[in-house]
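Example record

One chain of 812 residues, shown exactly as stored in the release files.
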Amino acid sequence: MYKNYLKIAWRNLKKQPFFTFLNTFGLAIGMAGGILISLYIYDELSFNKMFADADRIYRIDADIKFGGAEIETAQTAAPMAKALQNDFSQVESTVRFRTQGSMLVRKNETEDNSKELNTTFVDSSFFDMFGIKLLAGDAKSALTEPNTLVLTKTTAEKYFGTNNAIGQSLILNNDDTYTVTGVMGNLPKNSLLRDYTVFMAMTGHEASKEDNWGGNNFQTFIKLIPAANVNTMHEPIQGFLEKYMLPWAQKYFPGITAESFAASGNYIRYHIMPLTDIHLYSTRDGGLSANSSIQNVYILSFIGLFLIILACVNFMNLSTAHSLKRAKEVGVRKTLGSNKRDLIYQFLIESGLISLISLLMAVMLSIIVLPLFNELSGKSISLPFANPFFWLILLMVTIILGLFSGSYPAFFMSRFKPGKTLKGGSQTSVGGGNIRNGLVVFQFTISVFLIVSTLVVFQQLKFIQSKDLGFTKDQVLLINDTYAAGRQIDAFKEEVVRLSQVKSASFSSFLPVPSVRSDSSFFEEGATEQENAIQLDTWYVDEDYIPTLSMEIIAGRNFDKQRPTDSTAVIINEATLSVLGMEAEEVLGMRITEDVDLKEGNMIFYTVVGVVKNFHFESLRENIGALGLFLERSTGTLAVKLKAGDFKQTISSIETIWNKLAPGQPFSYRFMDDAFNSTYDAEQRLGRIFMIFTILSILIACLGLFGLAAFNAQKRTKEIGIRKVLGASIGQITYRLTTDFLKMVGIAILIAIPIGWYAMNKWLEDFSFRIEISWWILALAAFLAIAVAVLTVSYQSIKAAIVNPVKSLKTE
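Predicted structure tokens for this chain:
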């Protein structure tokens, strides 16, 4: 019996190739989108879960308010790990990371450096805590001695080829010599350590040995003993402020107490973050790597679910539209004895067969578009063909989709009455119009919502690109790692500035793009109590920094290299004025110091000589904080302001100068606007993904609308014939057929617009500087939906309107 069902189902699919293609293609698009999004979500949810005992590993975070600054950081003080080990019996082990960013690396016998982008100091307990096995070397002793390091497999092969790297030496930043004591496997791409290639022994980092509770520079992780309850630690760890932090601070502020600290509005609160939650739930500064957001997972989950539902709705509409052509088949089957159950089985098997074909098409589509999807999402996802669970899940989902999408057409067509269908009366007997119309409304509600979301995301990105940032990021070339030029560094800058296409150049590692950050507590002269602290981002720049980046000084002056006293000068930003409660002109001449631990005669005081207009040195998600620019050498990067012209030739000329003055050192550069844009990679990826899946949802919705338009035209064949006989024009008939669908699209717009407006306003709340959702964005979304609907429906409407009325009236 089932073999007969399959045979008939196959014949029916071959009999109507265009209808079959529309059904399978629409469902395949939805399934392919669902597969890709599911793999993306699985990758996001699996972050950091590959480490042994990941469910027992936690990171210590801190919320700090001091000196007018509020900081949420993933870093704590160097002695935090030891204090946790001593005070909590449930702590099995601890490990600290002290990231170093990029470093120049070379072998002993060569002068040519390579650049490692992500390096870190780490405690020797690292391998045991994270369950990492070494491919070579002893994990227990690999990082116990100073000036030792462990490399990943790829990095070891890069420097030592097939030779054993153990015992070999590497020179870091042309200065310190390290011995390779271990080689580890390449770290997974879905881990917080994915980008790190060089792990140096923490015992060689002097700051890690200091009892300094004021410097929060270390990522501190703990591993609890089995069955320990982390909740029992949340309250006791807050006692670290009074037990450790304040006794240390009393060396600098003798009268400080917990009460006076709180009374001044300051606080330090510690949090314990599960390792497996960091990637999706942490937005803190100072993490080991960039994180994603659970919000994006929810958004993509809904998009994937909607795509599949839209594809199923499309299948239902096309099947019911096609049902009129099979009405006589149903009538004959019922006349010959087929019961309702047999017909339901027949149609469900047909829908199951279409689902199976769609699955094969979806897998092929996924294979084809996966490289593009990886590029859009920044992932390295692959289809797990060797995993039987992957195929089992796909098969189960296919069966469920087949039953779900085929259920309504099956029950709908099995209700046809044989007498009416054999007499050709099915046009008036077919019901379910409200359900089909509701499905179209649902489809276009989702499509309009996605259109609104896409427009808002791209408008926010456009706002970010065009906003006045307080500095010029265009035509600014950043030459990286210029300290590698050694004694030739000043000569390098001088020769670069002499190039005809260069306006100016400035040395600094501190830039208003993703770069080095540092902050310190300063005090006005004569007011060195803790409640008078001013927390400043501390940047070291040269006298050309402000003009090179076209910043605006609103009071005072720029640094002047002809004035020796400017070695102790500082330029502050407008945000610092708010902390001080002073006006720009009033603050000029003020002296500040950070040397509260020294006697009055030994303190170094910095004099405020200028106030620079606020500029965005953090993401636009954040408010602008207090900042001080200090005249001091920081030679990590040379910012070069270029004149309009042939950038390629200018860069080539700069590289020639570099190779002459710093032979063997890597020449690396980037443009500031590219570095700025990388801050918003997550938003740009989200925008592109929104756009792709919005197009797919509209395509699927159009297929459904196309099917319903065909159904409606067939159902009203005689009506159209009568209207034409009575003198109706093709335009009038097309208008009547089209307006019925526009009513449904209008209802969808009324539902989707407020939902889209609310959802995207919530998304925009993450930005301190954001757009307001203008009326034209909502109007454009509505117009696009209407335009797409009209284009889709008009073909079927015009096709029905131009049919000879004689043929229409003969359908009885």
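Notes: The longest strand covers residues 91-107.
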